[in-house]
C-alpha cells in the first residue's frame, strides 16, 4: 500500500459528509489533515490504524485524528468484501480558529486529541449514534452543522471506547520514507496467508534482514513476526465468524501451519481460544 497525503475538504466547504459504496476496499494506507468519523454499514475486513491491526465489521464506528495513517482492507479477506459506509471529515477549525479551545467545548477538544491514536467506539455509543450519523447525509447545511456538533459532543462524553494505535506513533512517523513502507505493507497484505520469511520481506524494502528489522519495528512498533500474527489472527476471526470451516482449515488458510501454535497465539491475542471466540460471536449474533 502507498501512504499518501489526501486533500479532502475544499476551502468553500466546512466539512464533508457522504455515503460511500465500494465493491471491495483496497484503499491505500493514507493520511489527511482532516479528522474523520467512519460508520461501517456493511462489510467485514481488516482495519489498520497507525501500528494497530484489528478486524472490523458492520456497525463499527471509528474516529481518526489529523494525519493518522489508516485504511480499511477487504479485498480477498472475506465473502463480504463490499463496503457501505458513512464518512464525516472536517478540519479542527471548521467552526473558526480556536472554537474548541473555549471552555464549553473543552471535552470535544479532548476527544480530538484522543483521536490522534484512533478510536473505535463500542456497543452503547454505536447504538446511540448510528441513526444520527446516517441521517446527516440527507440534512441541509445548517442542520448538518448543528447535528455534527451534537455528535461530537456525544462522542466526547462516551467512556465506551478503545484506543487503537500506540501513543506517540505520529511523533515517530516519517512520511518521507512512505514509499518503501508502502511496498512492504502491500506485499505483506497480498501474501500473509502463506509462509513469509524475513529475508523475503526484507528484499522488498531493499534492506538486509538486520536493517529491515530495525526499520520495520521503528515504523510499526512491532516485529515482522508480531505484525504477521496480528494480521493472521484478524483474518482467522473473519473465517470463524463465517462458521463454515473447521479450526484446522482456518489455521491453515490464515497462514498458520501448526494448529497448536495457532490456538496458543489466538488466545494470547484475543484472550480466548478460537472455538470460544466463535461460540461467543455466534451467540452475540443470534441475540
Automatic annotation (TrEMBL):
Gene3D superfamilies in UniProt: Homeodomain-like, Jelly Rolls
Pfam families referenced in this protein's UniProt entry, alphabetically: AraC_binding, HTH_18
InterPro entries documented for this protein: AraC-bd (IPR003313), Homeodomain-like_sf (IPR009057), HTH_AraC (IPR018060), HTH_AraC-typ_CS (IPR018062), RmlC-like_jellyroll (IPR014710), RmlC_Cupin_sf (IPR011051), Tscrpt_reg_AraC-type_HTH (IPR020449)
Domain of life: Bacteria
GO molecular function terms attached to this record: DNA-binding transcription factor activity; sequence-specific DNA binding
Record domain HTH araC/xylS-type: where: 182-280
Keyword list, A-Z: DNA-binding, Transcription, Transcription regulation
Protein's recorded name: Helix-turn-helix domain-containing protein
Amino acid at each position: 500500500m502507498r501512504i499518501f497525503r489526501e486533500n479532502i475538504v475544499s476551502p468553500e466547504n466546512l466539512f464533508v459528509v457522504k455515503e460511500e459504496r465500494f465493491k471491495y476496499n483496497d484503499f491505500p494506507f493514507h493520511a489527511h489533515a482532516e479528522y474523520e468519523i467512519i460508520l461501517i454499514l456493511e462489510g467485514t475486513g481488516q482495519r489498520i490504524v497507525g501500528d494497530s491491526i484489528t478486524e472490523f465489521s458492520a456497525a463499527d464506528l471509528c474516529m481518526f485524528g489529523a494525519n493518522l495513517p489508516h485504511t480499511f482492507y477487504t479485498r480477498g479477506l472475506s465473502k463480504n468484501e463490499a463496503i457501505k459506509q458513512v464518512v464525516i471529515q472536517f478540519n479542527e477549525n471548521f467552526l473558526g480558529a480556536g472554537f474548541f479551545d473555549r471552555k464549553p467545548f473543552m471535552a470535544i477538544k479532548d476527544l480530538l486529541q484522543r483521536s490522534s491514536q484512533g478510536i473505535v467506539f463500542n456497543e452503547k455509543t454505536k447504538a446511540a449514534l448510528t441513526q444520527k450519523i446516517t441521517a446527516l447525509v440527507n440534512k441541509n447545511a445548517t442542520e448538518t452543522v448543528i447535528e455534527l456538533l451534537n455528535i461530537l459532543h456525544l462522542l466526547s462524553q462516551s467512556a465506551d471506547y478503545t484506543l487503537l494505535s500506540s501513543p506517540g506513533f505520529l511523533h515517530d512517523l516519517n512520511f518521507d520514507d512512505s514509499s518503501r513502507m508502502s511496498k512492504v505493507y502491500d506485499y505483506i497484505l497480498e501474501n500473509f496467508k502463506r509462509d513469509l520469511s524475513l529475508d523475503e520481506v526484507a528484499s522488498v524494502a531493499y534492506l538486509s534482514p538486520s536493517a529491515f528489522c530495525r526499520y520495520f519495528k521503528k515504523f510499526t512498533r512491532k516485529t515482522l513476526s508480531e505484525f504477521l500474527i496480528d494480521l493472521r489472527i484478524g483474518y482467522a476471526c473473519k473465517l470463524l465468524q463465517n462458521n463454515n470451516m473447521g479450526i484446522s482449515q482456518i489455521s491453515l488458510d490464515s497462514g498458520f501451519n501448526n494448529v497448536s501454535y495457532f490456538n496458543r497465539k489466538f488466545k494470547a491475542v484475543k484472550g480466548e481460544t478460537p472455538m470460544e471466540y466463535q461460540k461467543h460471536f455466534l451467540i452475540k449474533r443470534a441475540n
